[in-house]
Write a structure and sequence with these properties.
With 135 residues, the chain is α/β, with parallel strands linked by helices. It contains 3 helices and 7 strands, in the order βαββαβαβββ. It has one domain: Cytidine Deaminase, domain 2, CATH 3.40.140. Strands 1-7-6-5-4-2-3 form a 7-stranded mixed sheet, sandwiched between helices. Strand 5 and strand 6 form a beta hairpin. The longest helix is centred in the first third of the chain and has 14 residues. The protein starts with a strand and ends with a strand.
């Protein structure tokens, strides 16, 4: 299993965003510099049923990618939350995974008293677990 070091400030930012959204899925992008995750770019969820899926606001997504380029960063990860489901890719997540080189991060709020955050590589319908080392 691949291991990826993920800075605690970024983890905290993603978890706080998921907690604040309650029953709606949150989503966004994480950039990297020199292969290391550096910045979180929250993007509005414009899905018609945000409690069950996410659809990134196209303008905000384009703007986040533009800011990354200007800062010399690259796309590292795409994250979203599952308010009432495990931190596992859904069939929709697999079908819509359009960035095979990106890490996919899923946060589950469906755990008792704690949040679960897991990382995956999603390529050609296959799921590979990635061990997130927070620190």
């Amino acid at each position: 299993m691949t291991q990826i070091h993920f800075p605690r400030p970024l983890v905290n930012q993603i978890l706080q965003q998921a907690q604040r959204a309650g029953d709606s899925e949150v989503c966004g992008l994480v950039s990297a510099r020199d292969g290391q995750p550096t910045r979180c770019y929250p993007v509005a969820n414009t899905a018609t049923r945000p409690e069950h899926r996410f659809l990134m606001d196209p303008q905000q997504q384009i703007e986040a990618l533009r800011q990354m380029r200007e800062r010399g960063e690259t796309l590292f990860a795409i994250y979203h939350s599952h308010p009432d489901a495990p931190a596992l890719p859904s069939a929709t997540d697999l079908r819509e995974a359009a960035y095979p080189d990106a890490l996919y991060i899923i946060v589950s709020l469906a755990t008792e008293g704690t949040l679960e955050m897991r990382g995956f590589r999603l390529q050609d319908g296959a799921i590979e677990d990635v061990d997130l080392i927070v620190g």
